[in-house]
Write a structure and sequence with these properties.
The complex is a heterodimer of chains A (396) and B (134).
Chain A lengths: L3 E8 L10 H16 L8 E5 L3 H5 L4 H8 L6 E5 L5 H15 L5 E8 L5 H9 L14 H16 L3 H15 L13 H4 L5 H4 L2 E3 L2 E2 L8 E10 H7 L5 E10 L14 H14 L8 E3 L5 H10 L8 H6 L16 H5 L3 H17 L13 E8 L4 E9 L2
Parallel strand pairs in A: 2-3, 2-4, 9-10
Antiparallel strand pairs in A: 1-7, 1-8, 4-7, 5-6, 8-11, 10-11
Chain B lengths: L4 H6 L1 H6 L1 E4 L6 E2 L15 E4 L3 E10 L12 E8 L4 E5 L13 E12 L4 E10 L4
Antiparallel strand pairs in B: 1-2, 1-3, 4-5, 4-7, 5-6, 7-8
Classes of the chains: A alpha/beta (396), B mainly beta (134).
């Protein structure tokens, strides 16, 4: 098998993008990734598109071939990857496997979602379609509702506090304010959302005990990466290559109700373990991580399940500032899903774009992790029922 | 999501009678029915209704509902651990959100879940209320 390198990345600012169609967004992010690599005449062999809701929200299918045509990359192979909110990482994994196996040389992966052209209720309903259609969906279960039930158990059993959740929200919005690609560029204070009389108004309950500022926004957005075999990277582009050192993927039960211990994010644990094993690295080698904080509680829980902290220690670490920029293990220096936004199909790709910038040392110094060499991403589909992790390494 | 009459008809056993399955090989109770035992992986097609008695394992009160559920907010969803073992996801009813507690004994009742579309098709199914039957 061949080592795979990321040689180009691109992203468009997340937010509400009424001016662009879904295909426009995917095309703009892809063009940025292609430009970033200065690929010249070298043809793209295959394109993998990550998108969850085109069929539901835009009433459009066949999105991958539409994008290849739009980009004039004919006759490149085109595939759509739908794997819920983990579609982005799934599409990258498909690209990595195609290159590693020798079937493809140059692969473009583009992830995008357009969620702001429908009402908030419709968007919540769209995301809820990934719950069990017989035993969850008909009962009014939403992803925030699941996260609420999960949070309550985590508080009961693993020492999680509302204050730790607030620390994550403040940290990620502070970092998002420094990220020009972030949807939410507003700083928040502890007083404003937690311990003052008006905090109850500013920060209402969404799914008890989770509040508004525990949840990511609903966003439009797209991101793209261009990959090739490491051995070709140096001749194709002068950009510092970033190596996909390892990936892992695991599936857990469709429903939360069927898990022996619903607070055990088994798929996160297994995916991260597999990614570290393949990379021959360990959690303590990671300099910077992008975790899937669709809700603040998930950043804390994932930071434990990937092995940064022991179970029950994640809250303390967040409160002690260990996961802040400049801390022991900076998490979501991009602002995470919480501030960058969560256009579901784009998220897994955006995480890899962010880590690539970090490992190339290309970011402005207020959010560049010094001398970063190894990065981790976790993309979490469903409520942890399909999880992918990537360990990325700066090529020597 | 639009109403699908065939879907509501197909699910009548589990929705109205909390009908699951029991594995003929390892004896485990299964809900929702899936025809393959999640414990031993063998075929499990013997229908078996559950008692509907259990306790609240965890819960959350939902304020932001998906389309179709807006008129019912806020409503409390819960994981209910049944006496036979399986855990069921359902709404709680006949109880104020502030009075719900983990470990609270509850029982299944049939209630209106929602209405669908312009025709107003009513969907019934299970909810759980604080236990009153002895």
């Amino acid at each position: 098998m061949r080592d795979v390198a990321i040689i180009g990345v691109g992203m468009i600012p997340f937010g509400r993008r009424d001016q662009d169609s879904l295909i426009d967004m995917l095309a703009y992010a892809s063009m940025k990734a292609l430009d970033d690599a200065h690929l010249g005449d070298k043809a793209v062999d295959a394109v993998y598109v990550a998108n969850m809701g085109g069929g539901i929200l835009q009433h459009q299918t066949g999105i991958a071939s539409a994008l290849v045509d739009r980009l004039s990359l004919l006759p490149a192979a085109a595939d759509l990857v739908e794997n819920g909110p983990a579609s982005g990482a799934s599409a990258i994994k498909n690209g990595v496997q195609a290159i590693a196996s020798g079937y493809s040389d140059v692969v473009l992966v583009a992830g995008g979602e357009k969620m702001r052209e429908v009402t908030g209720w419709r968007a919540t309903d769209f995301v809820a379609t990934l719950t069990h259609p017989e035993s969850e969906y008909p009962y009014g279960i939403t992803l925030p509702g699941m996260a609420g039930m999960f949070t309550r158990l985590y508080m009961e059993q693993h020492g999680l506090t509302a204050e730790a959740l607030v620390a994550v929200a403040i940290k990620n919005q502070e970092m998002g304010a420094l990220n020009p690609y972030a949807h939410v560029e507003m700083m928040i204070t502890k007083e404003g959302i937690f311990d003052s009389p008006h905090s109850v108004v500013n920060n209402p309950l969404v799914a008890d005990p989770l509040r508004l500022y525990d949840a990511c926004p609903v966003s439009d957005g797209a991101a793209a990466v261009l990959m090739c075999p490491l051995e070709m990277a140096r001749e194709l582009t002068e950009k510092q290559p970033v190596v996909v050192a390892g990936f892992g993927q695991a599936t857990d039960t469709h429903t939360l109700q069927e898990r022996d211990d619903p607070t055990d994010l088994k798929a996160v644990r297994l995916a991260a373990q597999q990614a570290f094993d393949r990379a021959k690295l360990k959690p303590s080698d990671v300099d910077v991580a992008e975790l899937h904080d669709a809700f603040t509680v998930l950043e804390i829980a994932e930071s434990e399940h990937v092995g940064f902290f022991g179970k029950g220690e994640g809250s303390k670490a967040a409160l002690a500032g260990l996961t802040r920029f400049g801390g022991k293990i900076p998490i979501n220096v991009s602002g995470g899903l919480k501030a960058r936004g969560h256009p579901v199909g784009a998220t897994g790709v955006a995480q890899v774009v962010e880590i690539t910038w970090q490992l190339r040392h290309e970011l402005p110094k207020e959010r560049q992790v010094k001398n970063a060499k190894v990065g981790l991403t976790v993309n979490f589909g469903g409520f942890g029922n399909n999880v992918l992790a990537f360990v990325l390494r700066r090529a020597s | 999501m639009e109403a699908k009459v065939a879907n509501d008809w197909r699910l009548r056993g589990q929705r109205y009678r909390l009908e699951g399955e029991v594995c003929g090989h390892c004896g485990v109770a299964i809900f929702p029915p899936r025809d393959i035992c999640p414990e031993c992986g063998k075929p499990a097609k013997t229908p078996a209704p559950l008692s509907g008695r259990g306790e609240v394992y965890t819960f959350s009160t939902v304020y932001n509902a998906p389309e179709g559920f807006e008129p019912y907010t806020p409503y409390t969803v819960a994981l209910v651990k049944l006496e036979e073992g399986p855990v069921v996801t359902a709404q709680l009813t006949d109880v104020a959100p502030k009075d719900v507690q983990i470990g609270m004994p509850v029982e299944m009742v049939t209630r209106r879940l929602r209405t669908h579309g312009e025709e107003g098709t009513i969907v019934y199914g299970y909810k759980f209320r604080p236990r009153v039957r002895v």
